[in-house]
Amino acid sequence: MFKELDRTIEAVKREFGRPQILVVGDLILDRYLWGRVERISPEAPVPVVHLEHRAHTPGGAANVACNLARLGCQVSLAGIIGDDDDGRDLIETLANFDVETSAIQIVRGRPTTVKTRVVGGHQQMLRLDSEDRSALAPSECQRLLDALLPTVSRYSALVLSDYDKGTLGEDVCKRLIVGAKEASISVFVDPKGLSYRKYAGATMICPNRSEVAMATGTSPDNLSLLFEKTEELRSNLGIDFVALTLSDLGIAVFQTGSTYQCAAKAREVFDVSGAGDTVIATLAAAFSCGLDLYDCAQLANTAAGIVIGKVGTVTISRDELLVTLSKQSLTQVSDKVCSLEQVRKTLAVWRAEGERVVFTNGCFDLLHLGHVKLLESAKQEGDRLVVGLNSDRSVRLLKGPDRPVLGEIERAQMLAAMSPVDAVVIFDDETPLNLIRAIRPDVLVKGADYKEHQVVGGSEVRSWGGRVALIPLVEGHSTTKLLTRLTR
Questions:
Q1: N or C: which end of the chain has fewer CB within 10 A?
Q2: β-pair partners for 323
C-alpha cells in the first residue's frame, strides 16, 4: 500500500520531473545465447542446448542507467570498458536507450566485463564470466575523477553502482561522495564487498540481505539481528537511509529513529538478474522528485516485481510501471476500475453469458444529481454498464487549464462506488472513439442535449448492430453551475 498513490502515479506520468542523474560504476555487457533443450549429452550428464539466437544487453551500472532512462530521467553514465568489440557493442546498445556516454573511459589492455548466459527455454543453464576484477591503476582513477568532479553539480543525483569489478575503489567513491555532498547532490549506492567504509556519507545505500549479512558477519536468516546490524551500519557510516532488499519480503527502510518494511506482492519469479539495478534506479528517480520515502521504496518494490517476471537482464519501463500502479489503485478502491485489457477479458465473460453491454462516457468532474440519473438510466438500457472516463489531460483539452477539479483516480473511484456502474475505463484521447471501437458496446448512451448524428462513435456502434440511446438530462444540474455556486 502506498501512502500517496495518486501522487506517485502522477510522478511516474511526469517522468519524475526529468531529473539529470549521473551513474558511475562497473560496466558490464550481458550476452545471452538462447536455445531449446531436447536431450542430455551422451558425452556427459549435461543438457544439450540447440542455439536459436543471440542477444546482448547493458548490465551492471549500464543497466542502472538504462532503467533510469526508460523511467524518463536524463542520464549520463561513467565507468570503464576495454578497447574491444564487447566495449563497442555496449556503447552501441546504450545509444538505443538515449544514455549519454562521453564520460566512459577506454582502458587498453583491460577487457570489457562480459557475462554470457546460456538459456534453454526460461531456464538459465550456464554463465560464463570474462573480466578483470583488479583495482584500477591510480592514473586511471584520476582520469575518471577528472572527467566527473567538475560536472557533479549539474546533476540532481549521483548513483554509484558497485559490482566489485575494480571501478569504484575507495578513493573514487570517497571523492565522488564528498564532491556530491559539497554540491548538495543526493548519492545512492548499490554496494558490494565486505567493507562499506568507502560509502560513508552517502544519502542512501541499497544492499540485499546477503550483502549486509556478509558485511556485518550476520546470518541472513536472522532478520531481527540483521535489522539491528543494518541500523548500526547506517549510523556508524553517517548514511541517511538504508533500503535493505529482502527478496519476497519486500524492502526494509532504515533512517534515524525509525525502521519500516514495505511488503512485496507475491509474483512468479523467472529471473532475478538486474532486479537490484531496477530497485536503485527507481529509488533514485522517485527520491529526486520529492516522493515520500516509504512510497519511493514501495515503487521500487513494484518495479522489481515486474522485471523478475521476465527472463534475462531487462529494464523497467514507465508504461509498465503505470499499468501496474493503476491496477494497484483500482484494486485498493474497487475491482470495477479496469485497464482496457482487463475490461476486454471481463466483456468476454459477460457476452458469453448473453449480457448486453452499455457504454457511456464523460468527465464526471464533481458528481452531481444529473450524473447519477444519467448512469441509472443508462444501466436500464442493458445488463452491464461500462463508463469511459476522460483522463486529466483529456479534461484539460476539453474544459480548459483549471479543470478537472478532481483527479482521474478520484473520479474513477467515485464512479466505481455507484451501483449502476460495472466497469470504469480511463481514456486519454480527446474523444472516446478508440475506446468505443475496442469495447464494441451494444448500446451507446449520451445525454439528450446531443442529436444522434452528433454522438461520437454512433455510426460505428450502429455498424455492428448496436444502437444509440439519448437520455433526458436533469435540468439545472451541471459541474459548471455547481462550481459557480461554490465560488460565489
A1: C
A2: none
Contact 207, 170 (CB under 8 A): no
Residues 115 and 253 placed together within one structural domain of the fold: yes
pLDDT of residue 59: 95
pLDDT for residue 363: 92
Q: Exposed/middle/buried for 389, CB within 10 Å: 0-12, 13-18, 19+?
A: buried
> 415 and 269, same structural domain?
no
pLDDT on residue 10: 92
Q: Which of 263, 297, 322 is the last residue of a domain?
A: 322
- Residue 458 has which C-alpha cell? 454512433
Q: Are 335 and 361 in contact (CB under 8 A)?
A: no
Same domain, 98 and 10: yes
Which of 84-88, 152-156, 330-334 has the lowest average pLDDT? 330-334
Across the range 275-290, mean pLDDT stands at: 95
Q: Is the dihedral angle over the CA atoms 185, 186, 190, 192 positive or is it negative?
A: positive
Is the pLDDT at 481 greater than 80? The verdict is: no
Q: Helices 5-13 & 318-333, crossing angle to 10 degrees?
A: 160
Which of residues 487 and 426 earns the better pLDDT score? Answer: 426
> For the domain that residue 159 is a member of, what is the CATH number?
3.40.1190.20
- Mean pLDDT of the chain, nearest integer: 90
Burial of 154 (0-12, 13-18, 19+ CB in 10 A): exposed
Predicted pLDDT at 176: 98
Q: Note the pLDDT of residue 334.
A: 56
Its pTM surpasses 0.90 = no
Cα first-last separation, the chain: 39
Q: Which residues are catalytic?
A: 277
Angstrom distance (rounded) from CA 12 to CA 390: 19
Q: Is the pLDDT of residue 200 over 70?
A: yes
Domain-embedded: residue 328: no
State pLDDT tens for residues 55-94. 999 999 999 999 999 999 999 999 999 999 999 999 999 9
> Phi and psi at residue 183, in whole multiples of 5°?
-95, 5
Residue 328: the pLDDT is 66
